[in-house]
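Q:
Just now I want nothing more than another pair of eyes on a protein record. Here is the record:
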Amino acid sequence: MAARNNKIGFVLAGLLLSILMASMDNTIVATAMGDIVGKLGGLDKFVWVTSAYMVAEMAGMPIFGKLSDMYGRKKFFVFGIIVFMLGSALCGTATSIVELTMYRAIQGIGAGALVPIAFTIMFDVVAPESRGKLGGLFGAVFGLSSVFGPLLGAYITEYATWEWVFYINLPLGLIAFLFIAFFYKESHQHQSQQIDWLGAITLIGAVVCLIFALELGGKTFAWDSAQILGLFAGFIVLALIFLYAETKAKEPIISFGMFRKRVYWSSNVIAMFSGAAFITASVYIPIFIQGVLGGKATNSGLVLLPMMLGSVVTASMGGVLMTKTKYRNIMIPTLALLVVGLGLLTTLDENSSLWTIRVYMVMIGLGVGASFSVLSNAAMNAFEPQRRGAASSTLNFLRSLGMTMGITIFGIVQSQVFTRKMTDGMAGATGEAGASVGTPAGGLPAGMDLTDPHALLSPELRQGIPPQVLDSITHALSSSIVQLFAWAVIPAALALIASFFMGKEKMVVGEEQHEYTGGH
C-alpha cells in the first residue's frame, strides 16, 4: 500500500507541475513583453504573442478533454507536456516577433491539453474521500500560478534574460513527464467513438475570430473597420454552425445535455464571471502601483502576494469543506467577499497607502480562491468517469474565455476613460486647452505616448515630466482604473448570483471505484 501511495504521490506531483507551467505561462510572458520587444523589435506585432498562446490553448481545451474521455488520459496528457516543452524551447531561440508568435502557438496547443486533463486525472486516481483535499491543493496551485506569473516574470527580466521566461519550463516539464510516464497507468477502459470534426473545426475558427477581434480592435484596426467587423461576423457564423453541429453529433465536443444538470451549468457560469473579475484586479493593481503611486515593477508584483495567499487559503478550505457541506454554502460567502473587495478598490486614489491596497487584495484573494478548487470538483462529480474530461475542459475553457473577454473589454473602457480625463487634465495643467496630448508644448518628453497607461510605468520617464503635469496625468490614470474596478464588480456580482443556483449538491464520498495508478 505504501508503494502504491508513493506512486500516486509522484503522479500528483507531475500533475501539479504541469498546471503550474501552463497556467503561469501567459502572465509571466506578459510581464516580460517590454524586454522581449526591446530585443526582438516588432512593437506593432507584440499583441500576437499573447493572442497566439491564448487562441491555441482555449481552442484545444474542450477538444483534448473530449479526446481524453474517448481514448484515454495518459496519451494526450504526455502529448501536451512534450508539445509544451517543444514550444518553450523554440520560444527561447526566437529571433523575431513573428517566430516567437508561431512558437507560442505550439506552446498553447500543449497547454490546452495540460490543465483540463490534469484536473481530470486527479479526480480519477484518488479515493473519493481525498478528492476534496487534493482538489483544494490543485485549485490553490492554479490560482497561485496566475498571480505568481507577473512577479516571477518581473524578476527574471530584471536579473536574467527574457529567454529564461521560456527555458524555466524545460526542467519543470521534464520532471512532470517522467513522473507521469513512469508512474501513471490507466486502468479505466475507454471506448473509441466517432470524432466530431465539424464541431472541432468550427470551435477553433470561432475562438480564433473572437480573440483576434478583441485583441486587434481599437489597436491595430478601428472597431468599425472591415477587418474587425469581418472577424466578429466570422465568429457569429462559426459559433452558430458549431452550436448546430453539437446538437447533431453523436459524441459532441461540448455536450449541451450536460448543462441540464443544475450544479454543472451554474459552476460554468461562476467560473466565467469570477475569472473576468479576478483577472481585472490581477492586471490593473500592478499598473496602479507603478503608474499612480510610482512603484517599481517588482514592488507592483509583490503587492499581488496578499491576493495570492488569500486565494490559497480559501482554495484549500473549499477543498476540505466540500465533502462536509453544499457547494453553494462555500461559494456564496467567498464570492460575496470578491464583490466587496472589488467594491473597496473603487475607493482608491493617489493618496491611498500600500497597506490599504494589500488589505483589499487579501479580500479579493479570499473571494476567488474557492472557485479554483470547488468548481472543477463540482463539475466533474456530476458525471461518470467517461464524461469527466469533457466536464473539466469545458469549465476551464469558459473560465479562460471569461478572463480573456474581461480583460479586453474592461481594458477598452479604462483606455477611453483615461484618454478623456487625461486630455481634460492636460488642458488645465498646461493652460493650453488646445494643446495636443503628448507634444512638447504640453510639457511632456517628445514622442511620449500617453494613450497607453504603461507609458507611466517607467520611473525614468516619470522624472522627465513636470510635476504639475505628472499630477494631472496620474490623477487621470487613477480615476480610469478605479472606474474599471467599478465595472468589474458586475461580473463578480453575476457570479455571486449564479452561486445561489448550485442547488443542494455536495461532494458525495461513497464506494465509487477510482483509478489507481502505479503500474505493475
Q: What stands out?
A: The CA atoms of residues 87 and 493 lie 38 Å apart. The longest helix spans residues 385-430. The radius of gyration is 23 Å.
